Amino acid sequence: MGLVVPVLLGSVRSDRQGIKAARFLCRLLEARGHEAVLVDPMVLRLPLLDRMYKEYAPGEAPAALADLAALYRRADGFALVSAEYNQSVPPALKNLLDHFLEEYFWRPSAILSYSAGRFGGVRAAVALRPILGELGMPSIPSILAIPSIGTALDEEGRAAEPWLDRAADRFLAEFAWYAEALAAHRRVAPPPY
Predict the structure, then answer these.
(1) Residues 45-81 pLDDT 10s
(2) 151 lies in some domain
(3) What's the domain range around 22?
(4) Phi, psi of 69 (to 5 degrees)
(5) How big is the chain by its Cα radius of gyration, in Å?
(6) CA distance 32 to 34
(7) Tally of domains within the chain
(8) Is residue 59, in this structure, part of any structural domain at all?
(9) I need a surface site. Which of 25, 47, 57, 94 has the fewest CB within 10 A?
(10) pLDDT by residue (tens digit) across 9-45?
């Protein structure tokens, strides 16, 4: 049985390159037999955070938040696709993350970062780690960093060079190990709170 993995895309720019990385990740997760669900803030059009999902009265949350809450409760782990904006996390990704809390608990996260330059957005990935830990979905040890995103992937999310597919395969194997281990433990020993 495959994993359920929301793929959280962090950019809403009109000429964003991250959509290629999200497609790449979704395609590879599905090839491994997992259910990859793209969570795109450009499509969702969430407002800037005023109230978290849990702060709405039952049945009063916006439909997009209610749908995300249902998806997140089914999730075995979360994959994040992040650009690097000014050495940190894009505001759309932070806003997307901050609408929820308990829905993330006891599930691992995996970070794919990217940039137009040579460093592949690793500073954003480093900035994300404490955020994800605080949200209850600590990141796996590895990061998949994609430099030169403009040429590294085509529009459908296919890698231009073989190293990227090999690196992604190892990255996703590690993520699946953590997600499967935590899912198995949640079934036999419910979280303490």
Answers:
(1) 999 999 999 999 999 999 999 999 999 999 999 999 9
(2) yes
(3) 4-188
(4) -60, -45
(5) 16
(6) 6
(7) 1
(8) yes
(9) 57
(10) 999 998 899 999 999 999 999 999 999 999 999 999 9
Neighbours of 42 (CB within 10 A): 14
CATH number for the domain harbouring residue 29:
3.40.50.360
Is residue 193 assigned to a domain? no
* 97 CB-near residues (< 8 Å, 6+ apart): 8, 131, 132, 135
pLDDT reported for residue 191: 79
Q: How far is CA 109 from CA 45, 75, 122, 125, in A?
A: 23, 11, 15, 11
What is the rounded CA–CA span in Å between residue 10 and residue 78? 13
Alpha-carbon distance of 122 to 125, in angstroms, equals 5
Please, which residues have CB within 8 angstroms of residue 79's CB and are 6 or more apart in sequence? Answer: 5, 6, 7, 8, 25, 29, 36, 109, 110, 111, 112, 175
3-state secondary structure of 108: coil
Closest CA to 51 of 40, 59, 41, 62: 62
170, 142 in Cβ contact below 8 A? yes
Q: At 9, list the tokens.
A: 């895309």
Check: CB of residue 37 under 8 Å from CB of residue 71: yes
pTM of the model: 0.95
At 109 the three-state DSSP class reads strand
Phi/psi of residue 10, each to 5°?
A: -105, 10
Is 170 within the bounds of a domain?
Answer: yes
